C-alpha cells in the first residue's frame, strides 16, 4: 500500500540522517596534543584507534609552519580539540587550522600523560627527562612540581660535543654502550678500604677522577663517563626527593632514557635507595598526551 511505502521511506530517511550525524560526530572525535619543546616538538593523536605519536625537530618546526606540518598528517575537519604544552607553547597562535588551542600547564601535562601511560594513578615521583630534568609528584588527584635539575639530555650532548666533538645522539648512544667507565671514573674500591652503606665496590666515587692522572682516554670511555655522571646525578636527586615525599614508585618519561646506558644507570642508582624505577612505553610522548587526556 502507498501508506506503507511512504512510512518505510520516512524511516529510511531518518536512518540515513542518524548515520550522517554519527559519522560527523565520529569524524570530530580526534584529539591532537602538542608538546612544543626546545629540542623536539611531539604530537599525540587520539581517536577511536590506538594512539599515534610523531616527533619533529623543533628547529625545523616554526610557529609559522606548524599548521602546514600538522595538515600533512591529519584533516582538520576530523579534529575535535587541540591541547598544547611545553616550554614554547605560548609562542603558538590562538588557533591552528581554525581550532582554538587549549593551553595546559607543563607539570599537569607530565602528570596526566604519565598516569595514562602507566595505566594507574598511584602515588609516584615522575622524572621528566628531556634537555633538562623536572620532578613531578602525582597521585592522580594532586600534582606538584617537586624540583629538578639543569642536568639532563642537553648536558649529555653538550659535554659530548665539548669533550669528544660528537653531537649526534645515535653516535653518542653507540659510543657510551662500548665505553668503560672505570677507565675515567675513580671507583669506590679504589679510594676507600671498606663498604659504604649499600653501595657496591664498583660504584663511582669520583666522576672523571682518573682524568687527572691520565692524559689520554678513549672517546667511548669519556662518552660513557658523561652518561654515567648525568644518570647518577638525576637518580640520586630523584631518589632523595622521592624518599622525602614518602614515595616508593619512580616513573621516568621523556626522550633521554632512549640512551641505553643512561637508562641502566638510572635503574641501578635508584635501586640503591630501595626504590623501583619504571619506564612506560612511549614515555617521550607523556607531555603531549597529557595535553589531551583527562
Overall pLDDT metric: 86
Order of the strands making up the biggest sheet: 3-2-1-4-6-5
Described by strand count, sense and barrel closure, the largest sheet is: 6 strands, mixed
The outline comes out as globular
Stretches where pLDDT is under 50 for at least 5 consecutive residues are: 17-26
Please estimate the helix content.
Answer: 25-40%
Q: Could you tell me the radius of gyration in angstroms?
A: 25 Å
- Counted beta strands: 13
- How many angstroms does the end-to-end distance come to? 54 Å
Sheet-strand content, in percent, reads 15-25%
State the order of secondary-structure elements, H for helix, E for strand.
Answer: HEEEHEEEHEEEHHEHEHEHEH
Kindly name the structural category: alpha/beta
- DSSP summary: helix tally: 9
Write out key terms for the chains shown:
about 40% helix; 13 strands; alpha/beta; about 20% strand; globular; five-stranded mixed beta sheet; about 290 residues
Tell me briefly what this model is:
By secondary structure, the protein is of the alpha/beta class.
Fold and architecture overview:
The chain is α/β, with parallel strands linked by helices and 294 residues long. The chain contains 9 helices and 13 strands. Helix 5 (169-178) crosses helix 7 (219-244). The chain has a 6-stranded mixed beta sheet with strand order 3-2-1-4-6-5. The radius of gyration is 25 Å and the shape is globular.
Amino acid at each position: 500500500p502507498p501508506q506503507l511505502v511512504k512510512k518505510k521511506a520516512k524511516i529510511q530517511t531518518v536512518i540515513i540522517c542518524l548515520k550522517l550525524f554519527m559519522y560527523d560526530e565520529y569524524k570530530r572525535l580526534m584529539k591532537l596534543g602538542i608538546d612544543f619543546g626546545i629540542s623536539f616538538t611531539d604530537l599525540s593523536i587520539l581517536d577511536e584507534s590506538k594512539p599515534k605519536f610523531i616527533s619533529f625537530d623543533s628547529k625545523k618546526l616554526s610557529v609559522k609552519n606548524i599548521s602546514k606540518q600538522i595538515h600533512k598528517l591529519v584533516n582538520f575537519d576530523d579534529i575535535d580539540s587541540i591541547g598544547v604544552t611545553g616550554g614554547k607553547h605560548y609562542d603558538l597562535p590562538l588557533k591552528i587550522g581554525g581550532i582554538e588551542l587549549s593551553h595546559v600547564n607543563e607539570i599537569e601535562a607530565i602528570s596526566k600523560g604519565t598516569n595514562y601511560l602507566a595505566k594507574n594513578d598511584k602515588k609516584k615521583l615522575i622524572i621528566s627527562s628531556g634537555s633538562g630534568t623536572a620532578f613531578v609528584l602525582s597521585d592522580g588527584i594532586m600534582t606538584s612540581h617537586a624540583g629538578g635539575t639543569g642536568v639532563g639530555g642537553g648536558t649529555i650532548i653538550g659535554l659530548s660535543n665539548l669533550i669528544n666533538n660528537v653531537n649526534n645522539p645515535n653516535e653518542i648512544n653507540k659510543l657510551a654502550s662500548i665505553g668503560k667507565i672505570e677507565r675515567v671514573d675513580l671507583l669506590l674500591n679504589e679510594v676507600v678500604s671498606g663498604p659504604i652503606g649499600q653501595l657496591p665496590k664498583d660504584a663511582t666515587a669520583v666522576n672523571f677522577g682518573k682524568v687527572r692522572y691520565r692524559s689520554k682516554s678513549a672517546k667511548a670511555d669519556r662518552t660513557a663517563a658523561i652518561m654515567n655522571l648525568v644518570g647518577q646525578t638525576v637518580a640520586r636527586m630523584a631518589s632523595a626527593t622521592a624518599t622525602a615525599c614518602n614515595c616508593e614508585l619512580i616513573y621516568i618519561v621523556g626522550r633521554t632514557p632512549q640512551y641505553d646506558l643512561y637508562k641502566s644507570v638510572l635503574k641501578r642508582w635508584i635501586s640503591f635507595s630501595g626504590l623501583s624505577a619504571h619506564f612506560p612505553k612511549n614515555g617521550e610522548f607523556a607531555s603531549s598526551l597529557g595535553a589531551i587526556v583527562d
